[in-house]
Amino acid sequence: MTLSTRNVFFKAGIVFCSVSALFMLAATYFVAPFYSTIEENSRRPAAVFNVLAGHFLKPDFYAVHTSLILVVLFSLVGIIIIHFFFEQTAAPEIPYIAIFIVSFSFEFIRLLLPLYLVYDFSSFYLLAASRVLLFVRYIGIFSLFAASVRAAGLKVQKARYVFFILFIAALITTLGVPIDTQLWDTSFSMLTGNTSIFRLLEVVAVLTTVAGFFVAIKVHGSKEYAFVGLGVFLALIGRYLILNTDNWACPFPGILMLSFGLWFICSKLHKINLWL
Q: Is the pLDDT assigned to residue 178 strictly greater than 60?
């Protein structure tokens, strides 16, 4: 991928993330006033923190909404930062990092659930939206994995082949997830089947992704990749916190970890590739 082509991709990402932020604002106007009238769901996200804190922190739909605003804005600011850092600097890993960042802009889709509860439209749209969101989340995780493999020494002449493989892998994974549109949790997510299997898949992808950047230390002889791996780890922990929250304890720590992680990733990859 040439610099000019990659920069066009970054600019398209900025435009898309800006549109997502506008959709988020519009949806806020239509749904936020009704949160107090929505019946509280007893099902909570199956996240470790919620299991531990469930007896102390009650679900709050405004906290969920705040987390959505934060991740959509993070996606917009993040892709702008990536464009700023790498407009004139070649870094083979950065297009995949950019896909990971842009994937957060799709989280506004979760607001379709409260809109459905308020305005009562067809549940078909919930199913379609849930599939799209799962697909984007998986392609974000798989893109990070591709970035780590690329950093670890995999040579790819045509980036579009990698993007095609990522697309197919995310599509197959998404289509394999059963979704129940009649059941939802307090983070505005539809309940899915085979949760433990797909959680394990995510954990394996996360561990191998971080490991790939540490392998890159030996391959390239640069200790800066250790900080890239640390940044990826922080970003993934922050992602886990903010995407699975239903209370006020997680949104701000989650977005801070995402932000620091992105800063580590961009600053260190820029330093590594600046003189190449």
A: yes
Rg value, the chain, Cα: 19
Taking alpha carbons only, the member of 84, 67, 80, 81 closest to residue 28 is: 67
Per-residue pLDDT band for 161 (boundaries 50, 70, 90) equals confident
Which amino acid is present at 1? Answer: M
In order, the DSSP letters of the chain are --HHHHHHHHHHHHHHHHHHHHHHHHHHHHHGGGGGGSPPPS-----HHHHHHTTTS---HHHHHHHHHHHHHHHHHHHHHHHHHHSS---TTHHHHHHHHHHGGGGGGGGHHHHHHHH---THHHHHHHHHHHHHHHHHHHHHHHHHHHHTT---S-HHHHHHHHHHHHHHHHHTS-EEEEEE-TTS-EEESSHHHHHHHHHHHHHHHHHHHHHHHHHHT-THHHHHHHHHHHHHHHHHHHHS--STTSHHHHHHHHHHHHHHHHHHHHHHHTT-
Count Cβ neighbours within 10 Å for each residue of 78-96 and write b for 16 or more, e otherwise. Answer: bbbbbbebbeebebbbbbb
pTM of the model: 0.91
Q: According to the model, what pLDDT value does residue 231 have?
A: 93
Query: How far is residue 252's CA from residue 245's CA, in Å, rounded to a whole number?
Result: 10
Cα–Cα distance, 201 to 204 (Å, whole number)? 5
Sign for the pseudo-dihedral over CA of 258, 69, 11, 140: positive
Closest C-alpha to 9, from 179, 133, 159: 159
Task: Name the amino acid, one letter, at 266.
Answer: C
Sign, CA torsion 71/73/74/80 = positive
